[in-house]
TrEMBL record:
It comes from the Eukaryota. InterPro entries: Nucleotide-bd_a/b_plait_sf (IPR012677), RBD_domain_sf (IPR035979), RRM_dom (IPR000504), U2AF_lg (IPR006529). Residues 33-116, 153-231, 272-358 form the RRM domain. Keywords: mRNA processing, mRNA splicing, Nucleus, Repeat, RNA-binding. It is found in: Nucleus. Necessary for the splicing of pre-mRNA. The keyword Nucleotide-binding does not apply. Its main location: nucleus. PANTHER family: RNA-BINDING PROTEIN (PTHR23139). It comes from Solanum pennellii (Tomato). NCBIfam families: U2AF_lg (TIGR01642). Signal peptide: none annotated. The lineage of its organism: Eukaryota, Viridiplantae, Streptophyta, Embryophyta, Tracheophyta. This is Splicing factor U2af large subunit.
Length: 367
């Protein structure tokens, strides 16, 4: 496909001469200009890899160092089926990170940073993330699928139960914001999860919040390890503490939803729908109740709506900030969860999870 799109004269690459920059500068930036490409087919050679990556870099608009080819050198380890592709600039190497999963000779290849990549040093040499304006669709890729998973804000998520699906893990992580990149590591032979993943958030300011909220929580018989992939555990700054507290409440609900055997019930619990201030005024409270009955009644027979209110004497109120919906049957509550979970409400993303019926009937709103 690419040979038709971007025809090159035979032997154009030749010996792939390095661009005319000073040798000292080359050596200083080499670790940041090299790209690891894994999963190559047996037929791959230096010429075909160089031609292909120069083609696709041009196609996505990733060339930033002027006219000519982005690739200056290729080394292939045929036994282990990987290559090091050297780009002519640090910025072009970062743009190449968006090519993870691109189809080369009929199969997807992994595009990563080499093991000697130093994020701190590289950050002083040029951009460490791909440009957001790359035309990835030109080579059959979609932004935020598995590309863009490099740099200091890359998160390692370990200790995942093997029964977690990809969509369940994404849903858990997206409690904190939209993901720019996500990769659940799977066994090449079986296709099953290996129990760990990597992700990068679109808004990197939530990175430490997500790590602190998720790290150490129990999921079934596992304990999650969540941290920056290139660093040790980090702590959120003081300004993030209130956001972290709120995030931990969300994770508690998500954790319950993802437990093995957590079956659908007739009761649904919503968060991110009401604020405490809205519940203080009697008229506002009645309006909210009525709105909930009308809107949530569209999914089936709604028997009861419970919205705990703040205690006038200032004592803690169990379930404050949550909305409980009791339906006549599980089919209706399931439709409601599907329709409400993830919906935007007042700028927030609603989280809807099933709630134990016995706890609800006992008036226990803190389960």
């Amino acid at each position: 496909m690419f040979s038709n799109m971007f025809p090159l004269a035979a032997g154009q690459f030749g010996a792939l001469p390095i661009m005319p920059v000073q040798a000292m500068t080359q050596q200083a930036t080499r670790h940041a200009r090299r790209v690891y490409v894994g999963g190559l087919p047996p037929t791959a050679n230096e010429q075909s890899v160089a031609t292909f990556f120069s083609h696709v870099m041009y196609a996505i608009g990733g060339n930033t160092a002027g006219p000519g080819d982005a690739v200056v050198n290729v080394y292939i380890n045929h036994e282990k089926k990987f290559a090091f592709v050297e780009m002519r600039s640090v910025e072009e190497a970062s743009n190449a990170m968006a090519l993870d999963g691109v189809i080369f000779e009929g199969g997807p290849v992994k595009v990563r940073r080499p093991s000697d990549y130093n994020p701190s040093l590289a950050a002083t040499l040029g951009p460490s993330q791909p440009s957001p304006n790359l035309n990835l669709a030109a080579v059959g890729l979609t932004p935020g699928s598995s590309g863009g998973l490099e740099g200091p804000d890359r998160i390692f998520v370990g200790g995942l139960p093997y029964y977690f699906t990809e969509s369940q893990i994404r849903e858990l992580l997206e409690s904190f914001g939209q993901l720019r990149g996500f990769d659940l590591v799977k066994d090449r032979e079986t296709g099953n999860s290996k129990g760990y993943a990597f992700c990068v958030y679109q808004d990197v300011s939530v990175t430490d919040i997500a790590c602190a909220a998720l790290n150490g929580i129990k999921m079934g018989d596992k304990t999650l390890t969540v941290r920056r992939a290139n660093q040790g555990t980090t702590q959120p700054n003081p300004e993030q503490e209130s956001v972290l507290l709120h995030a931990q409440q969300q994770i508690a609900l998500q954790r319950f939803m993802l437990q093995p055997g957590a079956l659908a019930t007739k009761v649904l619990c919503l968060t991110e729908v009401v604020s405490v201030d809205e519940l203080k005024d009697d008229d506002d409270y009645q309006d909210i109740l009525e709105d909930m009955r009308i809107e949530c009644g569209k999914f089936g027979a709604l028997l009861n709506v419970v919205i705990p209110r703040p205690n006038p004497n200032g004592e803690p109120t169990p379930g404050l900030g949550k909305v409980f919906l009791e339906y006549a049957d599980v089919d209706s509550s399931s439709k409601a969860r599907q329709g409400l979970n993830g919906r935007k409400f007042g700028g927030n993303q609603v989280i809807a999870v099933f709630y134990p019926e016995n706890k609800f009937s006992e008036g226990d709103y803190e389960a």
